[in-house]
Amino acid sequence: MASPMRIRATEQDGVVDVKVLMRHAMETGLRKGSDGKAIPAWYIETVEAKVGDKVVFTALFGPAVSKDPFLNFKLKGSAKKGDTIAVTWKDNKGESRTDDTQVK
């Protein structure tokens, strides 16, 4: 199981600022290990944020994104203080992780 994401969501003047730190190795498949063999590709492909059942943000990632990616986005009119924002990532090996936070 992947490590929990660190998510912070704060509202100011009707705009919710969401910051997400995802723990993931993000291997490209091009790097070689100490044995000289290629390390298999393993990276996040999709990231989705929901408020309730409504998808409010979607991103497509690939092997060029760095290890432990940080994502910052803003929502206007989609969330308010007290709402729960759930963030889910899925990787190329079929693994996924969902974590959530309340807007402060």
UniProtKB/TrEMBL annotation:
SUPFAM superfamilies: E set domains (SSF81296). It comes from the Bacteria. It holds the Pfam family SoxZ. InterPro entries: Ig-like_fold, Ig_E-set, SoxZ, SoxZ_dom. Residues 7-101 form the Sulphur oxidation protein SoxZ domain. This is Thiosulfate oxidation carrier complex protein SoxZ. It comes from Orrella daihaiensis.
